[in-house]
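User: Fold this; tokens only.

Assistant: Input:
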Amino acid sequence: MILAARDIAIVQGGARLLSGVSLDLRGGEMLGLIGPNGAGKTTLLRALCGLAPLAAGAVTYDGQPLADLGAAARGRSVAYLAQDGRIHWPLPVEEVVALGRLPHGAARIDAAVLRALEAADLLGLRSRAAGTLSGGERARVLLARALAVEAPLLLADEPVAALDPSHQLQMMEALRAAARGGAAVVVVLHDLTLAARFCDRLLLLKAGRAIAEGRPAEVLTAGRVLDAYGVTVESGVRDGELYVIPWRRREPGA
């Protein structure tokens, strides 16, 4: 088991953001975190990489408490992609991506960086100054930097939010390829069809609690989506894969 979380609780500023959330994740799996805004998805992701202090519960990586990992070991073991999409360094794209290799000793353009650039469709932009890129292109650069770590655990917070449909599919394919290569991947998503198609399992959060966990078809039922998001859905199967389209908001008072 690469990652295990037990009864996670997070309290900030007197507000309880997460209560009693648990999950297990093995190498080769991709887990999707879904739920409405404010459900606790980003907070949970930050807790899983040690960036949010726990009020209760525990997180272990490969059987070892995450808190016991030193900074260098944590940097090699966990790659974290935040959702803000900012790049603070006036560097060419390939050098930004190479920063993902720092936990391994040096930020150099090695085979891992080239693999990440290719996975994010950035080889043609590798020499461009990162500050000249569009928001969607910057998002791909930051995902490539996370992929370049080649960590056993990859945590990605809304990695496709700023991308066009083609690159959304490409990025989900890249994340799934990382999982199929042996990594454990946790990804926060709002697009329910992408979650259904690419994730092995889903964890549905509402108001800081897990209300469903399992395979996409088990979690994305009409009743659960209505309960969590307040919307009806149209769903079906195309080419053997589930799609789920939000259709109408729940009528007031319904």
